[in-house]
Structures are given as structure tokens and as C-alpha cells.
Amino acid sequence: MIHRNLRVVALAALMAAVAMPVLAADADPVVASVNGKDIHRSAILDAQQGIPQLRQMPLEMVYDQLLDHVVTAQILLDQAKKQKLEDDPAVKAAFKEAQARILQQAYLSKRVDADISEDAVKKRYEDLKKTSQPKEEVKVRHILVETEEAAKTVIADLKSGVKFEDEAKAKTKDPSGASNGGDLGYIAQGDTVPEFAEAAFKLKPGEITETPVKTQFGWHVIKVEDRRIAPPPSYDEAKPAIRNELAQQDVQKVLDSLKKSAQVKKFNLDGSPYVEKVKQ
Fold first, then answer.
1. Cα end-to-end span (Å), the chain
2. What is the DSSP letter of 51?
3. Residues 124-173 pLDDT 10s
4. CA 233 → CA 6, 168, 217, 247, distances in Å?
5. Nearest of 200, 198, 199, 192 to residue 226 by alpha carbon
6. What is the CATH number of domain 136-229?
7. Residue-level pLDDT at 271
């Protein structure tokens, strides 16, 4: 598929740490400060990629959770440094293990960069365009509140004539919703948690949910503004995900090749010769 879900294809675990994009300074604003140390937007993106269940969620919907995560992590790091835990033997051993993983990832990254050509990415893009199936999207706004009663009050306000955008700016918990009137843009079925998507896709353009929608983030009031068949992403939009997809395949080829050329001896837990099991 070459629609929105294609854009979130992840590298294999060995490649995850080296696949993160590097943001330009002007695209990486400070989102928090802990004990005088600035935390940038890129740390939020790193954290999101590191939590599998949040990777495909719109950043706006999980921002509060991720922000708390990175702030807590920095507080813990500060305390560890104050206690000079980097000198602890167990920590030093862990550092060596981490260094080994980083070196492994760096090697694979260089190999993948050398193996995957622009022509290969373009060919995969064209193949995906030919086989892609149309996918429906809805353009939604939402208002996120803490309780069902608060959501019912929002619905009552909207029925009395309050504009959705104004209600969102005044009451939503979604950080971006306060400035953009709750606008999430176009979403497909797999772009949000199931409860949210199920409610949104039942609505016609102009309709608002009659009852509050509960998700792990709170209670939502949802408005659908438009429905469309999603256009396929441009080559530039699809390129990072396609490259990641090809990288996963290439990583396995590299590993298989290295294993064949390496001199490896295996033993059982008791030290006796290891016998390879025949695959069924």
C-alpha cells in the first residue's frame, strides 16, 4: 500500500536507532527545559519512535504523554550524573554493551546506504503506485476533555450554536487544538486508535458525534468536515518509508551473507557440541 500507512513503515530493530531523521535547527524548537537543559522537539520524535504503540498515532494526540516521558527521563539522567553512576562497574559494563550496539547499527547503516540506490527506491515507488488500492480518508476536528460529563457539556454547547473551532480553543486538552481549533486534518482508518476512527468514519461531512467517544487519552467530541479518496503520496513523501522498507530487506541479506562467511562455533548450555535443528 502506498497511502498514509506506507509513510510509517519502520526499519528493523537493528536499524531503528540510525533511521531517525536529523532536523534542521529551525525545525527543532525547544519543548521543555529541565534544570537549565533544553529539550528539543527531536527528543519527542525519538521517544515516539521508541514506543511501538505510539508510532502511528498523530503526534498531537500523544504529545502530552511523550513530553512527560522525555522530561522524566532527563530528570533521572540528571540525578544519575549527580551520583556519578557512570563510574559504577555495572554501568560501565552496560556502556560497553551499548557501544557495541551502536557500532553494529553504524555498520549496517553504512552498508544500507551503499546498497540502496535512488533508482531502486523509484522502481519500488512505481510498483506500489500500480498495485495501490484506493483508500478513504475523513477530515476531522476533535475536542479532547477529561470526563464524559465535560464532553456532554461540549456537545450541548455545539448544539446551542457555539462554533466547533471556538469550543476547541476554549476547552480541548490537545495542545495543538487550542491554536488550530482541534483540526487533525485528513486521517485514514489506521491512523488513530480504533475507537476514534470507528466513530469518525460513521459521520457524514458536517456531522458531530452525538455521544462522547472514550479512548485511552480521554473523552472526544468529533466533527467530520470532509470525506475523500486519498491521493497517493508524491515520490518525495513516500521515499523515506520506501527506503526504510528496502533497508529492512537489505539488512537481512547483509546478515545472511556475513553469517555464511564467518567462522562460527556453537555449543549447548553444558558446553557440548551444538547440533543445528533441521527446519521443518
1. 32
2. S
3. 999 998 888 888 999 999 999 999 999 999 999 999 999 999 999 999 99
4. 9, 30, 29, 20
5. 200
6. 3.10.50.40
7. 92
